[in-house]
Amino acid sequence: MHSSITVSAPGKLILLGEHAVVYGKPCLVTAVNQRMTAKVSLIPEQILKLEAADVQVHAYQKPLTELGGGTIPKGARFVEMAVKNFAEKHALKQGVSIDMSSAFKATFGFGSSSAATVCIVKALFELLHIKQAQKDIFDLAYKTVLDVQGKGSGFDIAAAVYGGTLLFMNGGAVIVPCKVSSVPLVIGYSGIKADTVTLIDQVKVKAEKYPAVIAGIYDQMGALVEHAKTALEEEDWETLGELMNTNQGLLECLGVSISKLSEMIWAARGAGAFGAKLSGAGGGDCMIALASKDRHKIVSSAIENVEGEVIEVETGVEGVRVEK
Ligand code: MEV
Predict the structure, then answer these.
(1) 63 CA to centre of ligand 1 in angstroms
(2) Which atom of ligand 1 is nearest to the CA of 200?
(3) Which of 114, 79, 107, 136 is nearest to 195 (CA)?
(4) Which residues pair with 41 in a beta bridge?
(5) 257: how many CB neighbours lie within 10 A of its CB?
(6) What confidence tens digit (pLDDT) does each residue in 104-153 have?
(7) Ligand 1 pocket test, candidate residues 153, 203, 225, 247, most atoms within 8 A of CB
(8) Per DSSP, which regions of the chain are E strands?
(9) Which residues contact 102 (CB under 8 A, 6 or more apart)?
(10) Cα(280) to centroid of ligand 1, in Å?
(11) Is 81 within 8 Å of 50 (Cβ atoms)?
C-alpha cells in the first residue's frame, strides 16, 4: 500500500468551437504533450500542504477543516478546492501534501489549472484505493472548476482526463473520442495572457445586446464543428483548414480576436497553412495553424516574423496517468 503517488495530466488545445461550447454546442479539443505533474502524499497531520513553484506558491498550509475559506493564493485555488471537494465526497481522514510542477508556462492557456485539478482528484482516488471511472474524475474536477471560477464548459477537464482528441458537448454529457492519431499543428503564443472568465463575460454582454445574432453565431459554430469532426477523422486537412478559417471569422464577430492574434493567423495563412485561428478564449494566449509537415518550418518562421513564439507540441496524447 502506498501513501505517496505521482500523477500527470496533459494540457489542451481547443481546435474549434470555443465560446459556443459554453452554451451547449460541441467543440473539438486535443490533449497536448505538455503535462502537469503532482506528487501527492497522505500525511498524519490534518492539513493540506502545497508547493507549486510555477505559480509562486511556497510552503502553503491549511487545516483540512478550513479548506475553501479565508484568503487563498491564486495559484492554490484549484488544488485546494479539489482536495475540499474530494474530502467532502469521500471522507478523507488524513492530511495531504502536494508538490506540483508543470512542463508549460501557466500563461500559454494550455489549461494548467484544469490539468492540476485532474491530477489531484486522480491521485486521491488512487491513494484511497477507490475504484473510479474516468467520468468520476471528470465530475469532481469539473465541479471544482465551477466552484472556483463560476463558469467554463469543462472541455479542458475532459482533455486532461481522457486524453486523445475529443468531441465535447453539454458540460460533459457528450465526450466522444475522434479517430485520429495526431493533427499537424503549428502553435503560436501571442505573449499576451488572456483571462477566460473576462472574455466569457465580454461575449455575454454582446449576447444580451444582440441575442438573435449571437445565438445564430453559436449555431454556426456548432454546425462547423460537426463537419470538422468528419474532416479530422478523414485527415482531410484542406476542409479542416477552411473550417478553421470560418471559425476564426465567427470568433472575430464575437469580438474576441485581437490584432496580435490576427497578425499571426494571417502570417500563417500567407505561408501556406491550410487554415489558422485563435485557440481558447481569445484576447491573447495562442493561435493554431494547420499545415502539412513540409510547411511547418516556413509557417513557424512566418509566425516568428510577426513576433509570435512558436511552441512545439504533440497532439492527441494520453490523459491523466499514474507515473512510475
Ligand atoms: C477557453 O479556453 C474556451 C472557452 O470556450 C471557455 C470554456 O469552454 O470553458 C471560451
Answers:
(1) 33
(2) 10
(3) 107
(4) 4, 97
(5) 19
(6) 777 788 889 999 999 999 999 999 999 999 999 999 999 999 999 999 99
(7) 153
(8) 4-16, 27-43, 47-52, 57-63, 95-102, 165-169, 174-177, 185-189, 275-279, 286-290, 309-311, 321-322
(9) 34, 35, 36, 37, 54, 112, 115, 116
(10) 6
(11) no
| Closest ligand 1 atom to 199 CA | 10
Q: Measured in angstroms, how far is the CA atom of residue 203 from the centroid of ligand 1?
A: 11
Binned at pLDDT 50, 70 and 90, residue 2 comes out as low
Q: Which of the listed residues 196, 217, 218, 277 should we mutate to test ligand 1's pocket, taking the one with most ligand atoms within 8 A of CB?
A: 196
156 catalytic? Reply is yes
Half-sphere exposure of residue 298, counting CA atoms within 13 Å on the CB side? 11
Contact 180, 29 (CB under 8 A): no
Decide if pLDDT at 1 tops 50.
no
- For residue range 16-34, what is the model confidence (pLDDT) as tens digits? 999 999 999 999 999 999 9
Q: What percent of the chain has pLDDT over 70?
A: 99
Region 282-296 average pLDDT: 97
Q: What is the pLDDT of residues 224-263, one digit of tens each?
A: 999 999 999 999 999 999 999 999 999 999 999 999 999 9
Task: Please name every residue paired with 186 in a beta bridge, in sequence order, or none if there are none.
Answer: 289
The active-site residue out of 156, 219, 236, 285 is 156
- Cα 155 to averaged position of ligand 1 atoms, centre (Å): 8
- Ligand 1 pocket: which residues have CB below 6 Å? 14, 18-19, 21-22, 152-153, 155, 196, 200, 280-281
Residue in the structure block whose three cell numbers are 491523466: 320
309 has which bridge partners?
189
Residue 108 CA, ligand 1 centroid: distance in Å: 14
